[in-house]
Fold this protein.
Amino acid sequence: MIRYHSSWIVPIEGEPIRDGWFTVDRGRLVALGRRAANDPTPGVGLGDVAVMPGLVNAHTHLELSYLRDQIAPSTSFTSWARQIIYERRKRPKLQDPEIMSSIAAAIGECVRSGTAVVGDISNTLAPFRALADSPLAGVVFWEIIGFKIEKPDEFVEHAVGELGALPATDRVRASLSAHAPYSVAPLLFRAIKKAVARMPFMPCAVHLAENVEEVELLKTGGGPWKTLMKDIGSWNHEWTAPGVGPVAYLDDMGFLDNRLLAVHGVQMSTADLARLKERGTTLVTCPRSNAHTGAGLPPVADFYESGVRVAIGTDSLASSPDLNVFAEVATLHALAPSVPAASLLASATIEGARALGFDADYGTMEPGKLARLLAVDVPPGTSDVEEYLVSGVHPGQIRWVEPS
């Protein structure tokens, strides 16, 4: 058993502890508390640091890491999407060496930035084994896309079979994800929902209400998404616009529930957010990506005022400058300074861990949980450690207390 001392402990569920101590035994947290004056108990001094649980990047696309700095920012989401589609069609091989090396580099960047758990969206499952060989835990979501699929149930069952063939690991799990309302047919949504329902405790994910073009398509049946889908040969002429927004559309078909991660939500109204809260759905926000892709700025204050569960993702290196969740937190803090720092830190840790199904081991500093703990350098004399942590932390300030 090892006892540590630090200037701050930020347990997430509970107030920060100044001049704290904690003990670790065989990789798990045993106890924590505040040091009494003149406490003679020996221990490992960590110095002027805030110790906290490892972060959770609840939404990223590791296999797009090779597109770092390759996709120009846009004022139109569909224009940005055209660039992604063009670049991806140039790389049809699932095990392209550049793609695989960029995945490995991105995983290393996540670890250096303080991430312990990821929710990774994949179209190829290429990141699965790389994640399994890394210190990260997480869920790899195999993303299903298909606006005109003749046999949706068979299509999804094939995907489930591929997931079942993956090696079993303690830290990395696999599930299904639906891409978005503008790229997944209604019957395919229903098939995905049925398949995930048979996977005990596994989450599902979907990009939802990300851009105005998505809202236009669902309400009118036209607009830039229809043009793009026709251009790439994916338009379904039998599809009929539901005449409602994205959240109502998925809720009406029973897709929203407490196992779903709804990603982005830039175009969500207060009524939409109330629906998500009622269903227990977790909203994952990625504000830096939203600015780059032309989706716009998310209504961050509305997210938190609604009471919906909010987690945080960086999205991919095709739309974000890095995979640093602390930088994403700082962006949220700048967009919505009224949101308490403690709420933002919870979104970066326990909310993501809970949504991905890892909250038994990650997300807070509590006895019995894994000691995947960060020590973040803080200036001596820091009085509000939570405010400091949400104002921008770079990887050079971070080290792992108990490296795997």
The chain has a mean pLDDT of 95.
